Amino acid sequence: MSLAKKQNIWYYLLIIFDISRHKRVRLWRIIYNCMGLPGHRRTSGDKRRRAAHFALTPKTGATCAKCGKVILSHRACVGCGTYKGRQVLNVAKRAHRQVKSAKAKK
Ligand SMILES: [Zn+2]
Question: Taking a C-beta distance cutoff of 8 angstroms, is the pair 90, 81 a contact?
Fold first, then answer.
């Protein structure tokens, strides 16, 4: 027996558990089947075609009727706190909270 074979722990495990060559092949096939390797190589064209849809679209903004600030549609204005002419946010309270959190970070 060669030195490389003597030092290999797998060789002793095979002797102890008496795993035949046929069983070993089946075991490796089970292990490799669990690994989920890619079936085919992805070509550069494949990657580029996929990446063609990665681009982000810019958000469309609406203008606030009260203060004229650019806002997201169907959302309350961050500047004045109104939505469809109604006051829904306490802007002064929000500003005070932001100042407080900024101080706490420092
Ligand atoms: Zn506004």
Answer: yes
Whether the model clears a pTM of 0.90, i.e. scores above it, the answer is no
What distance in angstroms lies between residue 59's CA and the mean position of ligand 1's atoms?
18
State which amino acid sits at residue 20.
S
**Model confidence over 69-98: pLDDT tens digits?**
999 999 999 999 999 999 999 989 989 999
Instruction: Tell me the CA–centroid distance for residue 62 and ligand 1, in Å.
Output: 10
Domain ranges of the chain: 3-34, 61-105
Burial of 79 (0-12, 13-18, 19+ CB in 10 A): middle
| Ligand 1 centre distance from Cα of residue 72 (Å) | 11
Contact criterion met (CB below 8 Å) for 70 and 63? yes
**Ligand 1 centre from 73 Cα, in Å?**
12
